[in-house]
């Protein structure tokens, strides 16, 4: 994704497959991809239990504030351009027409910046399937309608459950399926246990037992799969 023309990545998977853990690691962990980690402009986590995270106006305004904290030129636009200021400062504008607000308050000013970036920057949205509010899918609709209008250097990283109404219509987005039984994911867990978790124990026998039991469990799962 660092060097492709895609508009970003839509990471899909079942509940418990590690989507949010992946995003949290990307945002917070020093072990995550430095290229992406250091170039994240903004992020948003949706939750069924928190209606505020499903509010499309709050999403747009929060993203604008995060982007402004990184780009001085965009920050100056919000302050000096009366139209851009009015678009973002009136909460009702973004509630009534979120697509217009997202376009004129964020995307168009970014495209109009004098210094256009050569390296990609990223906006991260976690749990898009939890962004609906009372059956309304305003955040989903807005992202789908604007994904092709992003500046070429701006990409989306989105996670969601594998729901057809969500994954269809994201033109130009690369769709990746995060499977908990993927051999590569299992190998990553094995490596993580070996290098990060197990060294925390001072009991060498306990270390070996932990890793042995985990690998035995993996072997048993493979045998069951092959017998089906």
Attribute tags:
single chain; 228 residues; alpha/beta; Rossmann fold; 2 domains; five-stranded parallel β-sheet; 11 helices; 5 strands
Question: How would you characterize this protein structure?
Answer:
Helix 8 links the parallel strand 3 and strand 4. Helix 3 packs parallel to helix 7. This protein has a 5-stranded parallel beta sheet with strand order 2-3-4-1-5. It contains 11 helices and 5 strands, in the order E-H-H-E-H-H-H-H-H-E-H-E-H-E-H-H. It is an alpha/beta fold and 228 residues long. The chain has 2 domains: 170 residues, Rossmann fold, CATH 3.40.50; 45 residues.
Short account of what is shown:
The chain is an alpha/beta fold.
Strand content: 5-15%
- Mean pLDDT figure: 82
Write the element-wise H/E pattern from the N-terminal end onward.
EHHEHHHHHEHEHEHH
Low-confidence stretches: 221-228
* Total number of beta strands: 5
Radius of gyration computed on alpha carbons: 21 Å
Question: How would you write the strand order of the largest sheet?
Answer: 2-3-4-1-5
Count of individual domains = 2
Helix-and-strand structural type: alpha/beta
- The total of helices stands at 11
SSE layout and pairings?
Layout: E1 8-12, H1 19-28, H2 34-37, E2 40-45, H3 56-70, H4 72-80, H5 82-89, H6 91-96, H7 98-111, E3 121-126, H8 138-146, E4 154-160, H9 164-167, E5 173-177, H10 183-197, H11 204-227
Parallel strand pairs: 1-4, 1-5, 2-3, 3-4
Helix pairs in contact: 3-4, 3-7, 4-5, 5-7, 7-8, 10-11
